[in-house]
Every structure is written in structure tokens, then in C-alpha cells.
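Hi there, hope your week has been kind to you so far. Do you reckon you could talk me through the fold, stretch by stretch? Thanks so much in advance, here it is.
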Amino acid sequence: MDSIKRWTLKWKHGEAEVQSLGGMLAPVRFDLGSGRSVSPMQVAWEDDGSQVGLMRALRGEWPCLPFGMVDAPANLPAELARHKADDGWVHGYGANHMWESVEQGDHSLTLRITYPKDSAIERLERTIEADPDAPALKVSLTVFARRDAVLPFALHPTFAVPVSGVEILACPFEAIHTYPVPQEPGVSRVIPNRSVASLQRIPTTQGPMDATCLPMVDKTEELLQIAGCEPPFVLRYVEQQADVFLDWNAEELPDALLWISNGGRAHKPWSGHHYAVGVEPANSFYDLGRVATPAANHPLADRKGLAFSAGQARTISYRLSALAL
């Protein structure tokens, strides 16, 4: 098993670490002035040799191409047509394998990963660049394709949920769609297959759930798709008195998947202690685009993914930043 390498970026307004596994970005510290700082990216656990793929050292933010599960939930509704994923890598080959450093400057780092020869994707290049004048990081992903393909795609920023709390200020949006089945069987409480208008009133088996204040009292795991999300997406860290912003191109990635991990997974390596919130800009049918296709009248039926063309590089850029309140 290859060892995990890590690189550090330091600049006037913060510090960030990037690892070779998945090209994952975390931890990140943004300095806000007057001795204050906020560290918004989640670090789930360190590599202890018990896990494989992206689960070895899950953390922070990384790109997912193709995005999503490779095994369909057993109880998917009949109106969703099932199909097989074209490989066995949850969230794509790049999320589960080692990236190599191509170039590191004073304020930037570029990584690269080459996909298997039978993949439609040839390689990915990822640059993390610190803003010398602000507590902010600009990240760009360039995709090189071997052949034309439309693939579910998402970014996977996962934010820390401290005991002191985080408020989900979110973004203007069109609708919120609940997952087609309980996201974690026997644990998830959100009622499947609903469209709702407020994060403060998500329907559950125990009444309305307020998804804007984390952590929640009751343990749970939930996945919602916020359709027509207009970035930036904003999270407020209460104790640190800081807002954290995630900004991206909504014309490419029209939605944000909201993954609420509130201690609901009792099995290892989660062990009932994982508290985080994923804000995942996406062009995908939930995380099911590789294994299921919705009916034509489903509100997310057109979320088929991004188009990649052979011989034509495509770059997706986004920005992570913080601001003191």
C-alpha cells in the first residue's frame, strides 16, 4: 500500500495541507486578523491501515469524477431504472488513488493523476492557489478526456461541525429534494422523495427537521439535493465568529448536495463519532447517477453530468474563503 504524502501551503492569511490520496485538501486554517482564525475543513481520521481507497484518510475537499455510488441501494423505487457502474471506485478513480505533485510555488500547488487506460478520462490536474491578499483559496480542476463522455460530476467539500456549532446560511435556491430512500437504513429520518421549500422544515418521521443548525441533538445521516443553488454557499462558525464561503460556477454545477453526517453511522470507521457537513456542488442525480436513471418527469431528470470531449481540456474552478463577523 502506497504511503500518503502531504504538502503544505503557507501564506500571510493562513495555512493549508493537501494529501496525495484523492488530492484531498485539509486541514485549512484561515487567519482573520486580531489573532483570530477558523479551520473549516473536516479531518475524519488518520490512516491506521484498516481502510482502503478514499476511506484511508478521509478529509476536506476533493473532486469526484465520475461522482457517486457504484452499488445501488437495495430498496430504490421502481421508477428508477437501475444500471451498473463502469468501475468499482466510489466517487471515481481519482478519489481513491494517489496524485503526484507536478509543481509547487510560494502560494500554489499543482497535482496530477492519470486514469486507467480503459477510462474515458485520461488525467486530472488540480491546482490549489492561496490568495496572497485574503484568507481564501482558489482551486481549479482541469479534465483531459480520451473520448467523449457525459459523466456525473461533483466537488466534495466536507466541513467540520464543532461542538460549538455551525449555522447553514446556505444559498438562494429553487427547491430541496429529499433522497429517494433512507440515506442510512435504520438511521435516517427524512421522508424520501419529497420536494420542500425550506431547510428549516425538512419532513421527517418525527416531524419537521431544522437542517440549518448543526450538530443536531439526535444522531442521523441525511442527504438532500438543493436544486438551483446560487453560490456562494455560506456557513457561519458561531464560536469563531466567522462566515465561510464556497463559490463556484452554477451554470456548470447547478445544485448542491447537502450531506449531514450527525454521528449516525455506528460501524467502523465512523463509530458514531463522525460529525460533518458536506456541501457538494454537483451536476448529478443525487449520488446515484452511475447506478440509476430517473423517469423523464423527475425534477432532477436533466442532471446527467458534465460533457467532456476528447482532446479538449475542460477546467472547473471554485473558491473557498472566510470573513470575520
